[in-house]
Amino acid sequence: MVIKLYQQLALALGTWVIRLRISAMKLRPSKQSIKAGARVIDTAEMYGNGNSEQLVGQAIQNLDRKELFIIDKVLPNNASSDQLPKSLDASLARVGTDYFDLYLYHWRGGIPLPETVKALQDAQNAGKIRHWGVSNFDLADMKELLSLPGGSEVAANEDLYNLGSRGTEFDLQSWQVNQKIPFIAYTPIAQGDRFGQQLTTNRTIQAIAEEHQATPYQILLAWTIRSGNVLAIPQTSDPIHAAENVKAGDIEFTEEELELIDNSFPKPTNKQPLDIL
């Protein structure tokens, strides 16, 4: 039986659901987050043209690799049977590890999906990745993936999701729960003001933050992971915010608070195009 991402996280990290994404060209925040308790790190060959992966390698020096859960991603143009192994080896070398816990197909490109799936399976069989998944896939993409040979081995799908971008709630998230495929949210606090909605200055968010003695950013992050079915990737270049992100996992909302948030930021009532950054 395939070990899904949630099970792997439970074995390695307990109930940890907030993670660090390293894409900025600064090392201090990553070390601050790890010190605060973050043990799941998300990076990609695309971030800083490999420099982000090098920062990850520096940040995890002198740490027990078995206590970390490292996620990396391959670009669409590198997702062929010939190029994926080369890109994977280069990423492993930059991070300074023998394997990635999860390796994601960053978004769909021109290479046939069956070829990419086969290349990911080969990498897994070679022991260079523990699990593989996808990113920026909508429901139709996921259904197509599961129809392919080996497609059901997908361990996760990572999409844009936050209070200002709730489209995946309409069908994708519930479908993934039914299929037992973890949903990973990137940009979960929407940089505070995604889509011009001024999330951090919203009166409801500020009032709830005051009630919980938290920051608006912590409330936005806690809301993203409220269901227990979403893993979040908070990103910051501020070490203080990095530590605050970790503490957001302790926030629990009342039904009244969730209703107030829904009134300010309504749930989707129809299918929406997948938001991508």
Characterise this structure.
It holds the Pfam family Aldo_ket_red. Substrate binds at residue 106. Residues 31-263 form the NADP-dependent oxidoreductase domain. The structure is a single chain. This protein is of the alpha/beta class and 277 residues long. The protein has one domain (5-192, 230-240): TIM Barrel (Alpha-Beta Barrel), CATH 3.20.20. Helices cover 38% and strands 13% of the residues. The chain is built from 11 helices and 8 strands. The protein has helices at residues 5-13, 28-36, 51-59, 83-95, 113-125, 139-146, 172-179, 203-211, 216-224, 239-247, 255-264; strands at residues 20-21, 40-42, 69-74, 100-105, 129-135, 157-160, 183-186, 230-233. The protein has an 8-stranded parallel sheet, with helices on both faces. Helix 2 (28-36) packs parallel to helix 10 (239-247), helix 3 (51-59) crosses helix 4 (83-95) and helix 8 (203-211) crosses helix 9. The longest helix has 13 residues, at 83-95. It is globular and about 55 Å long. The two termini are 34 Å apart. The model is unreliable at 7-29 (pLDDT under 50).
**Overall geometry:** globular
Major sheet: order of its strands? 1-2-3-4-5-6-7-8
**Radius of gyration using CA atoms only:** 18 Å
CATH homologous superfamily heading:
NADP-dependent oxidoreductase domain
Biggest sheet record:
8 strands, parallel
Q: Please write the string of helix (H) and strand (E) elements.
A: HEHEHEHEHEHEHEHHEHH
- Structural class call reads alpha/beta
Briefly, what CATH class? Alpha Beta
Low-confidence stretches: 7-29
Helix content: 25-40%
Mean pLDDT: 84
The number of helical runs is 11
Query: What is the CATH architecture descriptor?
Result: Alpha-Beta Barrel
CATH third-tier fold name: TIM Barrel
Number of strands: 8
Relative strand content: 5-15%
Distance between the termini: 34 Å
Whole-number total of structural domains: 1
Organism: Lentilactobacillus kosonis
Protein name: Oxidoreductase, aldo/keto reductase family
Domain NADP-dependent oxidoreductase: 31-263
Pfam families: Aldo_ket_red (PF00248)
